[in-house]
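Lab notebook, design round three. We kept the backbone fixed and only want residue identities now. Task for the bench partner: fill in a sequence for the structure below.
Input structure tokens:
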């Protein structure tokens, strides 16, 4: 059966040979205590110390312990109950050993109190002893070690060497102001603030500046574009040719424009003087065609038109040097690029006129051989459209027999690619080529030369109408083209 301390004390008192009258007083929870009446009439309160023990009152001991803790730099104890605050708090948890043969001790309240009186009182620390202990070198050294360990734990990245005790004691004896000065001297100097950039003040009144920019003054230049019919012949052909060649190689664009005009005069009125030097003149003119200077580029394109108009097929070896693989060395590629570029309008118009002069000056079959690769394979859709238009113009200049001699299937395949191109110019040029090819196919001489017979239609099944038989032109397109290309060409020719 579990009993409270009051019940245990009451039961033990009743079993004692000397009866003890116990009186329990009901008090508030924080002030509840048990008063016991001893046999001799003395009364001991549970809140104070035993009268027979001769010990000092508990509140004074608490004050001494708190003062000692404050002197040692520790936090005072917050325990409110002092030593011996309850008469049963000092009861042993287990019976003390006793010698054999002796009677067992009695664990009654009078016996326990008699045992407490027999024991000497616990020596209570005094304030003077606590202060002396706190001022001892050993305690100070221990406190310094704890402070250094705390600083090292707070800053693990910095290596702090332990300072000797004498230096720490000397620093403690220094005044606070001197310590602050030493700490400021030990710290690195603070960076100075960056000076503000002062702007140059604006003048109150406008200042007239008479200083001109260094270097020569720019000269306003007006380039005159002379038409081919307005060019005049020269008196000294050799001297003019000798002056034109270095000018074409000059880095100054004005000198190059003058040299191109001199070359145009020689080409139009004295073509025999330049025919022997075409291999030198054409690359120099091509260099000016590639120029970013619009005036120089237009003058060079006009010179190209004059060259083809004067020499014609003689320029065929110099027209497409390098082909699509090397457009920088191909005069035809540069003219096509200028026609389809986003350059200035007067340059584009001049390039289109020069391309038409080239097609009119060269053999149609030879020009087709140069134009068809650009119309079918070039990556730029605008170039494909311009090349297809030039090829259609070349096919339009050919006779039906020349078309058949060049190869009607080859031209039909090129038209099948152009008619499905995503460029309107290419589709329009394909329709013109298809019209020319159909007209040539209908020519009796070409029909006899081709000797094409359409295949016989399959026999119709019983009860079904016979299938529509394609015409000779439709059968020829189906025989030489793929299904989709043949349908596109047939549709374009029907339109």
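Proposed sequence:
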């Amino acid at each position: 059966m579990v009993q409270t301390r009051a019940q245990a004390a009451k039961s033990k008192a009743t079993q004692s040979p000397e009866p003890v009258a116990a009186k329990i007083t009901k008090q508030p929870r924080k002030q509840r205590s048990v008063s016991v009446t001893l046999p001799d009439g003395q009364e001991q309160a549970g809140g104070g110390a035993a009268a027979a023990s001769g010990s000092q009152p508990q509140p004074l001991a608490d004050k001494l312990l708190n003062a000692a803790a404050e002197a040692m730099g520790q936090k005072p104890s917050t325990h409110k109950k002092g030593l011996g605050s309850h008469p049963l708090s000092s009861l042993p948890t287990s019976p003390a050993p006793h010698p054999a043969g002796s009677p067992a001790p009695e664990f009654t309240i009078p016996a326990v109190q008699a045992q407490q009186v027999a024991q000497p009182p616990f020596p209570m620390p005094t304030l003077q002893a606590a202060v002396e202990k706190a001022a001892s070198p050993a305690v100070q050294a221990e406190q310094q070690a704890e402070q250094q360990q705390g600083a090292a734990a707070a800053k693990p990245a910095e290596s702090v060497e332990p300072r000797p005790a004498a230096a720490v004691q000397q620093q403690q004896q220094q005044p606070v102001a001197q310590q602050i000065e030493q700490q400021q001297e030990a710290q690195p100097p603070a960076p100075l603030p960056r000076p503000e950039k002062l702007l140059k003040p604006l003048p109150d009144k406008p200042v007239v500046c008479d200083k001109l920019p260094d270097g020569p003054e720019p000269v306003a230049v007006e380039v005159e574009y002379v038409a081919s019919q307005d060019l005049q012949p020269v008196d000294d052909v050799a001297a003019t040719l000798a002056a034109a060649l270095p000018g074409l190689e000059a880095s100054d664009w004005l000198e190059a424009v003058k040299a191109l005009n001199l070359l145009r005069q020689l080409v139009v009125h004295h073509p025999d003087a330049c025919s022997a030097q075409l291999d030198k003149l054409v690359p120099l003119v091509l260099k000016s065609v590639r120029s970013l200077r619009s005036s120089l580029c237009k003058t060079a394109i006009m010179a190209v038109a004059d060259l083809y108009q004067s020499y014609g097929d003689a320029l065929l070896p110099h027209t497409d040097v390098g082909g699509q693989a090397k457009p920088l060395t191909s005069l035809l590629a540069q003219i096509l690029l200028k026609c389809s570029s986003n350059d200035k309008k007067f340059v584009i118009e001049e390039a289109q006129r020069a391309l038409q002069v080239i097609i009119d000056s060269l053999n149609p079959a030879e020009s087709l051989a140069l134009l068809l690769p650009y119309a079918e394979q070039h990556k730029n859709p605008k170039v494909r459209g311009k090349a297809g238009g030039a090829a259609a113009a070349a096919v339009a200049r050919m006779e039906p027999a020349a078309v058949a001699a060049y190869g009607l299937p080859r031209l039909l395949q090129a038209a099948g690619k152009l008619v499905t191109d995503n460029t309107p110019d290419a589709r329009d040029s394909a329709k013109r080529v298809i019209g020319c090819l159909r007209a040539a196919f209908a020519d009796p001489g070409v029909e006899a030369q081709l000797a094409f017979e359409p295949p016989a239609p399959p026999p119709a099944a019983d009860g079904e109408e016979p299938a529509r038989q394609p015409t000779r032109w439709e059968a020829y397109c189906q025989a030489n083209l793929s299904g989709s290309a043949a349908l596109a060409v047939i549709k374009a020719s029907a339109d």
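Keep this in mind before ordering anything: The radius of gyration is 61 Å.
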